[in-house]
């Protein structure tokens, strides 16, 4: 099964968590409510539930949501989401912010962030776009990942990611857009948000609060 945006659902069920939930957990209070935007098959949401957080998980793919357990499920595009309630924490992982719809994504984050809440966002930092090379990848759990057909055009990078596992092979084409820290701060301000600080040594996760 391939989702409308090209994600192979079977592969996503095999990808392991890589400490993302622990980064979120360390940044929020015990038992804080979490809105997981673009949750996929629940790779992060499942661990957050185990850590004691009530999670509302949002994805526009019913096939992805079918694999969620222990969380409230909402099938919707992030940009269209209007739940009418705020959350202690809003999670925007998987480098979604480096896509073409940054304004709509950040507007959804702001709509659902409680006044004293915090959003945790994952991005590709600017240097990632410079160092990425053909053949990069490795093992993610049982899944072998490799990149090919990389094309750079201005601030956009397009590539194909190949997944191999259990005798199967899947490919997904993606485009990511470079954001500088100045760009990022500007987009956040436009959405009524403010950069709070980095949340990991690699500076791939950062906190955001409302203003």
TrEMBL record:
Signal peptide: none
Record-linked SUPFAM superfamilies: S-adenosyl-L-methionine-dependent methyltransferases (SSF53335)
Molecular function GO terms recorded: methyltransferase activity
BP-aspect Gene Ontology terms: methylation
Key words of the record: Methyltransferase, S-adenosyl-L-methionine, Transferase
Domain spans labelled Methyltransferase: 34-117
Superkingdom in the source lineage: Bacteria
TM spans (from-to): none
InterPro entries in the record: Methyltransf_25, SAM-dependent_MTases_sf
Name assigned to this protein: Class I SAM-dependent methyltransferase
Provenance organism: Amycolatopsis cynarae
């Amino acid at each position: 099964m391939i989702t409308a945006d090209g994600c192979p659902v079977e592969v996503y069920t095999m990808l392991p968590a890589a400490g993302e939930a622990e980064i979120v957990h360390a940044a929020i209070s015990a038992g804080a409510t979490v809105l997981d935007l673009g949750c996929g098959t629940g790779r992060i949401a499942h661990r957050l539930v185990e850590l004691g957080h009530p999670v509302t998980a949002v994805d526009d793919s019913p096939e992805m949501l079918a694999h969620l357990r222990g969380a409230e499920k909402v099938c919707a595009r992030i940009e269209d989401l209007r739940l009418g309630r705020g959350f202690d924490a809003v999670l925007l992982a998987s480098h979604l912010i480096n896509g073409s719809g940054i304004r709509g994504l950040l507007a959804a984050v702001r709509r659902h962030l409680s006044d004293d809440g915090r959003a945790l966002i994952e991005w590709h930092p600017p240097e990632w776009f410079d160092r990425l090379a053909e053949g990069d990848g490795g093992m993610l759990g049982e899944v072998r990942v490799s990149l090919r057909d990389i094309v750079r055009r201005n601030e956009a990078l397009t590539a194909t990611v190949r997944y191999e596992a259990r005798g199967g092979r899947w490919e997904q084409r993606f485009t990511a857009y470079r954001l500088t820290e100045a760009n990022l701060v500007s987009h956040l301000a436009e959405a009524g948000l403010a950069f709070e600080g980095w949340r990991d040594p690699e500076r791939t996760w950062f906190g955001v609060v409302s203003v």
